[in-house]
Amino acid sequence: MTRSGANALPRHVAIIMDGNGRWAEQRGLPRLEGHRRGARAVDLAVTTARELGLEILTLFAFSSENWGRPEAEVQGLMELLSTYLQQERRRLVDNGIRLQPLGEIDRLPARVRDLLDAVVAESADNRDMTLNIALSYGGREEIVRAARTLAQEVAAGRLAPEAIDPEGFAARLFTAGQPDPDLVIRTSGELRVSNFMLWQIAYSELYVTRTYWPDFTRRHFRRALAAYGRRERRYGLTRDQLGGDG
To answer: What is the span of the domain harbouring residue 87?
Structure first.
C-alpha cells in the first residue's frame, strides 16, 4: 500500500474523453462541433500535463468500435485529427513531448497515417513527456494481438510456453516499456472503462467527472490529480494483508 500524498503526481494519467456528442446535442449543434470543441480540450490537457511535469499522458481518441459510426462523422473525426497533427506538431516537438500512437494505425486513412508518422519521427528523441494517442484502439483487440504474437513465437520455437509471464505479455502490448496508468480519468459521468487499456489499468485509480469533455479545463484536471493524491493505492491487497480496517 502506498499513499500518493497531497503534492504527489502520478507518473502516467490516462483519460477517456467522453461526452462530445452529448455536449453538442444539448446545445442544438452538430455532433462534429462537439468533437471540434473537444479538440480544444485536448490541447489544454496536453499543455497542463506538460506544465505539471507528468511523465505520460494517454488520451483515448478513437476506439476500434468508432469505425461503426456514420461515415460523415468518421470522416470529420479524421479531418480533426489531421488538423490537430498539422497545428500541434511543432509545439509538441519544441516542448519535449514524444508522440506515441496506440492501436491499429494501419486502419487510418493514408493521409492521417503519413502525418502521424511524421510527427512520431520528429518527436522520437523527446524525453520530457510522452503523449500516447489511442487511435483505432480496443483493449480486447490489443490483448488478442499480444496473445497472437506470443503464440507465433511459441510455434516458431523462439519461446517456451512456460516462459510466458505477465511481464512478457506486457512487452507485447502497444504500451511496451511504459509504466501502467496510475490514474484513469473519465469524463461525462459514465461508470465504465469502455474497452480501454484492459490489461494496463488493473490497479489504476479511477476518477469520474460528470463534466463533458469539451468543458474539461485545467481546474477539472487539477481536481482529479488532487483526488488521486488523497488516495491510498493498495494494488489488490486484501484487508487482512493490509492490516487494521483497511
So the answer is: 2-232
